[in-house]
């Protein structure tokens, strides 16, 4: 019973993109590990950019700096 947790920033990911992630990860586990897709769980956590840091900065700050 595989369980995969994907964490992404909450920057406009569509339902279709999430569906593709779930389908793709599930298929990868089927292909590589011969897992049963009916018992494969994929959880997507969307994290606010104020709650995600890279290096010494919040992703929100990094995104703002990249725009300027």
From TrEMBL:
What InterPro entries has UniProt attached to this entry?
4-OT, 4-OT-like_dom, Tautomerase/MIF_sf
Domain 4-oxalocrotonate tautomerase-like span(s) in chain numbering: 2-55
Q: Name one Pfam family in it.
A: Tautomerase
In alphabetical order, the GO MF annotations are: isomerase activity
Family matches, as Gene3D superfamilies: Macrophage Migration Inhibitory Factor
Q: What is its EC number?
A: 5.3.2.-
Q: Does the keyword NAD apply?
A: no
Protein name per its UniProtKB record = Tautomerase
Question: In which organism is this protein found?
Answer: Rheinheimera soli
């Amino acid at each position: 019973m595989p369980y995969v947790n994907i964490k992404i920033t909450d920057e406009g990911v569509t339902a279709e993109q999430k569906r593709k992630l779930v389908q793709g990860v599930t298929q990868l586990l089927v292909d590589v590990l011969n897992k049963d897709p009916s018992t494969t769980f994929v959880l997507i956590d969307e994290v606010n950019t104020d709650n995600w840091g890279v290096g010494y900065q919040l992703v929100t700050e990094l995104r703002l700096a990249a725009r300027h």
